[in-house]
């Protein structure tokens, strides 16, 4: 992805921090993109230039009152109601250039009325732990003008294969994003349900 | 729905027995390699190519051709193989193009055994490359996926194979070239489209080769590759090179290499399409005012087609959102009522009633809000439909649309045809109907169900049969009308003559190929004629010998209307009909059955595949069609001619007039 994203006013979130999703001019957001990027950590030692492909998959789970209602992931790229769209599976990750490797678009106006939380997760499909991943981030971008609203950079990796990254949830008439950053283990989002539920 | 992949994109495969179709503008060599989990081809016995066309689970064509079918059985591929790469290469003979930049971008598609497309990929942006890895099928978590690769190699097959780690890649590439050269001598190119001005010598060649192609079993086996033997001069290298006929673009001066002109020869306007009309931005807070043709596409036809499909998807999804919200509200209320009931405190005083009341209020509130959103969306779609419907061309329009009164025989085949209207219960309140558009040429036959299995059990069965016949006649008339004059032919089988009344408009206008076939002999003759046509065309296509078709063969698409099935059908005729249903669509022969499945019950499950192969339509509204996104059950309504209207007769007269004019 080559679009220019201004680093501008985006907020760097830390775990547990929440921001209200509003335009700078105070208007309401209509469409946001949750972008995920990562890079395989280079190996040290002999043949150090050889990197292994790491396939991280981004998923979004739509909840109504803590009941999962729909899931968007690489096998189901669009939620039934059409409000959440996955742009497609990336199997290898980027060169860490700061662009998004996988992105999930959320049309906030079209999210069905009973959906009150959307949780974004990342799993390592190929089984590597996040120790082998570097420069992983998730960021929320205002899709209408490309402005970054919030960015959450993963801390140095650990011995786990999944991350519950963030949630976007209703707050009053608008939406909020909360950085969750809880580690979990699993290959696809189904394995993550027990880890997601406490964060709701 | 088939996925159109772009480079690097992947798609899950649910079947393991697949076909891979390749079509390119010029003859190409198609092959496949197996590689292990490191991406290495372990040896030459992991490469399927024209000299060694079959590996376990893989079969590739023996010769270079512009169109290929590769058979793949992923269950039979060795355990150790993790990836199947499909490759294309340009043949290396004299006069062959030496770079993909000089030929039309190759197109590859993964299809099921029934021909349904799973994924497709057009390999664009090739230039100096002469070999390319088109697709790879790879194992992932116990299942298979397909990825569009598009990796080209200027160094040809040798470079491609050595990149996959094959030790003696160059030697094998040489052998493949040799096997292809032997094979090329046997192929005959397709004719230039429609203008059959090729000389008699080409015709003679073709007939020779066709007799060859008619007996595929007698092909001399290409034999095991002989590693170092040079091409034998005794091989039929010197036979007349059939490839000059391979230049389908008349616009292109012969002998000129260089970038190919992608313009369709029949299309005279290479100028970029006029910009699509776009909806002006609406007032803040108000939805934009809809405009017809507000979608992507190169022509108004395509834009309207895309817009209609966009409306179809939007309606499917906004109803999904509404239903999901209502389901959730229902289940939440149920839980809360249960809880109120089991709570011992609720037995005291009015607490229980209050809790129940609160649960119902919450339910009502959520459903109201969901309904509000749905109403907003439906109003927007209804407004869009109100501007789109009047703008539709005849092929997309209902019979009540005035465009049919100004109907003139068209010059080009439209993108799609309206088969009827689709509705959901939620959309009925605002009278919103989505045109059901299917792509042309038709991909499958149709079956108009005259049985009483439909929802409308009150209608008399005679009345149902009558309506089914009328729907069939109107559908056939619509097909005749939207194809250019003479490019669509309609046959009718009516064994007992019971459809004479309904068929009258077609018969009177003189637009049928022959009078409706009656009696057992009529049935078998009509079927024999079309079966023979399917055989001939199929043989020619498989053998790459389209030249060999008899010059008097009608090139039009064919539609066979079958009334009263299985009346008048013996076992042999039933077999032929099934053959037509299976093999016909690929070569432009389609069925339109008007039948009650019950009537054919005595055949038992033998006919199940026949019914399944046909698109079921109903003469009365019936909710049996599903959308590709959410799977709602949509109510289909046939596009009936308004009562008292003479539009059908007028349109058929114009079809007949245009045909007479063409024949002069």
Structural write-up:
- The complex is a heterodimer of chains A (200) and B (664).
- Chain A has one helix at residues 189-196; strands at 11-12, 18-21, 31-40, 56-64, 67-72, 84-86, 102-107, 117-124, 133-142, 147-153, 162-171, 174-184.
- Chain A has 200 residues and is mainly β.
- Chain A has one domain: Sandwich (Lipoxygenase-1).
- The longest helix of chain A has 8 residues, at 189-196.
- Chain A starts with 10 loop residues before the first strand and ends with a helix.
- Chain B is an alpha+beta fold and 664 residues long.
- Chain B contains 12 helices and 21 strands.
- In chain B, strands 1, 2, 3, 4, 5, 6, 7, 8, 9, 10, 11 and 12 form a 12-stranded mixed beta sheet that branches.
- The longest helix of chain B is centred in the middle third of the chain and has 43 residues, at 300-342.
- Chain B is globular.
- The relative contact order of chain B is 0.09.
- The interface between A and B is medium-sized, with 20 and 23 residues.
- Chain B: Residues 65-162 form the TerD domain.
Q: Which architecture name of the largest domain in chain B does CATH use?
A: 3-Layer(aba) Sandwich
CATH superfamily of the largest domain in chain B: P-loop containing nucleotide triphosphate hydrolases
Which regions of chain B are unreliable across 5 or more consecutive residues at pLDDT < 50?
185-259, 265-272
Report the CATH C-level class of chain A. Mainly Beta
- Global structural class of chain B: alpha+beta
Q: Classify the fold: give the CATH topology of the largest domain in chain B.
A: Rossmann fold
